[in-house]
């Protein structure tokens, strides 16, 4: 199930617009990217090899771009990193099936 979930697109709505969130490789130098909001059939791409804290950060980073495409990269990087640090400290983790198991949420030992 987890491998299949990494390959399919999930339709998400951010700031009143829809994107297809997909797990696919972007390039050798990037872990993700976000199409501009005016593009038809726009996608947010996150590298399927990412795991853990970096995966969470890239999801947040690309969704911040989707919400405000005009924010500069340093703002997006700093904000994504800060949000990721808080969520990770609160114990947010993705389980093997892609869900956040209740037993790890809020557990600082996780």
Please give the oligomerization state of what you see. single chain
Strands across the major sheet, in which order?
Answer: 1-2-4-3
Query: How much of the polypeptide forms β-strand, as a percent range?
Result: 15-25%
Distance N terminus to C terminus?
A: 23 Å
Helix count from the secondary structure assignment: 3
State the helical fraction. 25-40%
Structural category: alpha+beta
The total of beta strands comes to 4
The largest sheet is:
4 strands, mixed
Parts with pLDDT < 50 across at least 5 consecutive residues = 100-108
Shape verdict: globular
| Global Rg | 14 Å
SSE sequence, one letter per element: HEEEEHH
Average pLDDT: 86
Offer a concise description of the structure:
This protein has 110 residues and is α+β, with helices and mostly antiparallel strands.
């Amino acid at each position: 199930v987890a491998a299949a979930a990494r390959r399919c697109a999930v339709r998400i709505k951010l700031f009143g617009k829809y994107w297809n969130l997909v797990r696919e490789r972007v390039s050798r130098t990037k872990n993700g990217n976000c199409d501009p909001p005016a593009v038809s059939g726009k996608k947010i791409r996150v590298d399927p090899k990412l795991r853990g804290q970096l995966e969470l950060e890239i999801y947040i980073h690309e969704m911040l771009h989707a919400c405000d495409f005009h924010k500069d990269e340093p703002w997006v990087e700093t904000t994504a990193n800060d949000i990721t640090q808080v969520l990770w400290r609160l114990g947010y983790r993705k389980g093997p099936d892609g869900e956040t198991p209740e037993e790890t949420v809020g557990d600082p030992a996780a």
